[in-house]
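User: These chains co-purify. Model them together.
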Amino acid sequence: MIKWFAACMIAAAALPAWAHHSFAAEFDVTKPVKLEGTVTKMEWINPHSWIHIDVKNPDGTVTSWMVEGGSPNSLLRRGFTKHSLEPGTQIVVEGYQAKDGANRANGRDLTFPDGKKLFIGTNPDEKAPEK
Amino acid sequence: MSNRFQITLSVFAYVCAGTSGASAQGLAVTAKPAKPAPATATAAPSLRTPDGQPDLSGYWTNTTVTPLERPKDLADKAFFTPDEAAAYAKRQLAVPEPTGPGTYADVHYNMAQFGLERSQNKVAANIRTSLITDPPDGRIPPMSPEARQKNADRAAKNKGHEFDGPENRSLGEQCILWPNEGPPMLPAGYNSNLEIVQGPGYVAVMQEMIHDVRIIPTDGSPHLPSSVRQWMGDSRGHWEGDTLVVDTTNFTGKTAFRGSSENLHVVERFRRVDADTVLYQFTVDDPSTWAHSWSAEIPMTKIQGPIFEYACHEGNYGMANNLSGARAEEKGKTQEAK
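Assistant: Joint model of the two components:
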């Protein structure tokens, strides 16, 4: 346990300094998840966007999940719009489940079923400055 | 994807002007190496607002690859050559290697995918090896023993209670104050964008992260009474030639900029050095924290607006989720102990 904690402390020091909050406090490294589901809505809220998906279970029932994503402002700057992820879209989420066991996960990687990345758009700053 | 490495290849060359400080000239190195312009006070372009003020207005980013403090292995090297600076920037802006699934650092999202790593940003490159220009070693002066003790006591008091409640979390997590807001205004990890608006008697600085607008009177009015303490202090500006000089006092002790006390005193200087650049310099002084003052400078480069809204607590599930994660962890430990 102590060894694990020490490893965590070292890793934490290497974490990007720009996380708005502690991901490790919110999500559980021992609970990796891969979810394939249908988008029901996307919340464009700071500091993190949240994507809601319905995941069909093998027994036919449906479980709703919330997936934490990046800052809406950054996504907007990369060309992502509110129409880029309409309800009904199929996506695949790889991430980690919330520590409290709720059906929430961080969206470490989000892809379409064909493997294409969900985010990464154009950079509007490439255009000439207006002034 | 092809534009992800879109970097402003407008490198700033800094020409040391004696020991009194540094003056800067813009130096474009887009396609071909540029010649440094002469470092004279009159070299700055005459960009004016309609009412005749030096024009600082517009949208800017202070995204940088230059560390605040000089890395120890560069102790005696205050400046890179332009080639070294370009190579350094390229290394810094390389897309980070993905972390391995199941590792602690991996409990995060893919920064590149969400547009959060700097290679996707416009960056005013810099041939300095640290943002700190004074002291000459490019590092924050050592803290006084009293300040060290005070900060250690504060940390000890919070130890083990980091997730007791929202008030124990950092000011950033509480959506109260981010380091980019300042003063002094240091780059945030992402969304390091700001807008400057000028009018008669006022200059306003709006930071994208996390929402505050600094309204800086330039009408000669005095500071607030010392009994009034504010997270971002009380800023008053005046013009010295083409430079906006902003003096800030009246901080709260809780602001604790790098461990500072409420006696923190910040002097900032904004100067439009070319059409695409505002040079931002600051000096911080707090005799109860550091043996002497220290100074830094950050070039801010022009970006396309607008600044987007950042309503930090509107649907901020992160705080509640962090605390509920901590409660779950505590519960697990209690059960383990039984």
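The helical segments of chain B are 82-92, 145-158, 317-337.
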